[in-house]
Amino acid sequence: MEKIISAAPSLAGPLLRLHFHDCFVRGCEASVLLNSTDGNMAEKDAKPNKSLRGFGSVERVKAKLEAACPNTVSCADVLTIMARDAVVLAKGPTWPVALGRRDGRASSAKEAADHLPPGFGDIPLLTKIFAANGLNLKDLAVLSGAHTLGTAHCPSYAGRLYGFSSAYNADPTLDSEYADRLRTRCKSVNDTAMLSEMDPGSYKTFDTSYYRHVAKRRGLFQSDAALLTDATTREYVQRIATGNFDGVFFKDFSESMIKMGNVGVLTGAEGEIRKKCYIVN
After folding, report:
1. Which residues pair with 197 in a beta bridge?
2. Could you tell me which residues are annotated as the binding site for Ca(2+)?
3. 3-state secondary structure at position 78
4. ∠ CA(89), CA(154), CA(261), 5° rounding?
5. Which one of 76, 90, 205, 266 is at 20 to 30 Å from 14 when CA atoms are compared?
6. Which residues carry a binding-site annotation for heme b?
7. DSSP conformational letter for 170
8. Residue 213 designated active-site
9. Which CATH topology does 2-116 take?
């Protein structure tokens, strides 16, 4: 992992995101890594997953593990450990990862489209999706802090900049000066080439500046802005945004990641240990 992140520091966010997107669909059982087959469109080809990256890095780590210790470490465990290490190498907290997850044998693009928390989500929708995975409102506020790492393609937030509603061209909950700046990078809703940093100025470093942006109405997604619309999540954002509670956030993030990493896991005789992460045995 040190080699991977030192060669490509911008991969920390995508590797963490792979783990998130795995756990929210069928639980943490590496279904997000499976390739589509003739009769089945897999999760990785679902619209919300089109921009996932880091599959090659996971395969490289898995191949080394298979060479050293065949049929022992699942792809689900590899993904969970890599996400934790990506955070650590981006100067974030560490946490213990329990091992013994098994890999699932099914993967569905439709399930991914139905179950992943969307960037346009409001609090009621996000709460429902998180609750379905045993995660609460605090976990939502805490895990949103993962947006301190990584970038987003223009179409994932352009709806906030252009033709937002019949009353507003731009999302009124977005700071207008920041919206102007985003428009210079993202020329239209169909601008697929352009990337924006989700935590401008420190998108390769795991820190609390994401919360300062959100508190100033400069969160990139509607789901970031939504954190200010609920008393519980707003209080959390404003507290961490002061910069006086970085240790609290790091501890909270570790706890929420442990919870998320245990969602819907397969153990014992369930599932399998894939030899290659992109194909079932």
Report:
1. 151
2. 22, 25, 27, 31, 43, 148, 199, 207
3. helix
4. 40
5. 266
6. 147
7. S
8. no
9. Peroxidase; domain 1 (1.10.520)
Binding-site residues, in ranges, read: 22, 25, 27, 31, 43, 117, 147-148, 199, 207
Q: List every span in the chain annotated with CATH 1.10.420.10.
A: 137-258
Burial of 186 (0-12, 13-18, 19+ CB in 10 A): buried
CATH architecture assignment, domain 137-258: Orthogonal Bundle (1.10)
CATH 1.10.520.10 residue ranges of the chain are 2-116
pLDDT by residue for the chain (281 residues), tens only, comes to 999 999 999 999 999 999 999 999 999 999 999 999 999 999 999 999 999 999 999 999 999 999 999 999 999 999 999 999 999 999 999 999 999 999 999 999 999 999 999 999 999 999 999 999 999 999 999 999 999 999 999 999 999 999 999 999 999 999 999 999 999 999 988 888 889 999 999 999 999 999 999 999 999 999 999 999 999 999 999 999 999 999 999 999 999 999 999 999 999 999 999 999 999 99
Tokens of residue 222, six digits: 């509607």
Three-class secondary structure of residue 265 per DSSP = coil
Q: How far apart are CA 171 and CA 212, in angstroms?
A: 19
Asked if 226 and 160 touch (Cβ cutoff 8 Å), the reply is no
Helices and strands per DSSP (H, E), number in the chain: 12, 2
Considering just the CA atoms, what is the radius of gyration of the chain in Å?
Answer: 18
Contacts of 240 (CB under 8 A, 6+ apart): 145, 208, 211, 246, 248, 249
